[in-house]
Amino acid sequence: MDRRIALGLMAAGGLSGMVGGMRPVWAQTAAGETADLAPELLQDFTMGDPDAPIKVTEYASFTCPHCADFHTDVFKELKANYIDTGKVFFTYREVYFDGIGLWAAMLARCAGPERYFGFVDTYYSARDSWLSDRDPAVIADNLRRIGRVSGMSNDSIEACLQNKPLAEALVAAYQKNSAADGIEGTPSFIIDGERHSNMAYKAFATLLDAKLAAK
Question: Which residues of the chain have pLDDT under 70?
Answer without folding.
Answer: 1-35
